[in-house]
Amino acid sequence: MFTDMHNHFIYGVDDGCADQDAMLRLLFNLEANRITNLVSTSHITPGLNPFPMDAYCRHFEEAQALIRREGLHMQIYTGHEILYTDLTPRYLREGKALTLAGSEFALIEFMPTENYERLCEAAQKVRNAGYRPVFAHIERYACLSDLRRVEELKDRYGVRIQVNCSLFVHRQGFLRRRWIKSIMKSGLIDYVSTDTHDMPGREPAMGQCYDILLKEYGEDTARALTNDNAQEILEA
User: Which of the residues 5, 51, 85, 192 has the least number of beta carbons within 10 Å of its own beta carbon?
Assistant: First the structure.
């Protein structure tokens, strides 16, 4: 059984599911992928675009009701995927941006072209605000192609590292495959998540990803990245 720390199943609040029917289809697909713990991480961009928090809360409650009605075996939790801006620490302190499952951990994303200094600044300011940063889908950030920088983010700032299932499931070029092998060998990844949006095109693929991790890196690593490490957040 798996824990998904990054997805967009709540409908009508970002570029995830468009309506309740799409949300229900995705929830069925998530259960088919053996995901039993699911943290909703709708996009929020502090200071740039207003987030419809009231709609998010209503639709989250609808999701809980649908899960009960359909007999799905999963627990859902609130959260946000927070695009880092200068207002992100303030939004966290004021509760305008939600942490992962109400914990001290906050899922932070960046523009793909963001420079490394900005990532370090974000990590430090999120920590200063009293939270622990989890950097989302780091495979997208060109500045982290050098794994020494990933090591520094973890060692100096306590950053947790999340990558998407697609990194392992989708076909990759030579340089990316080499990067994957290096980061896996270094043990720098903390969580593998789906980052699933409305289907088709952004399916969960957690089960397929687990099978690949199991085959290539062993059961302990596969379980840690798809479930066990995330318990630190759910139990915080």
Answer: 85
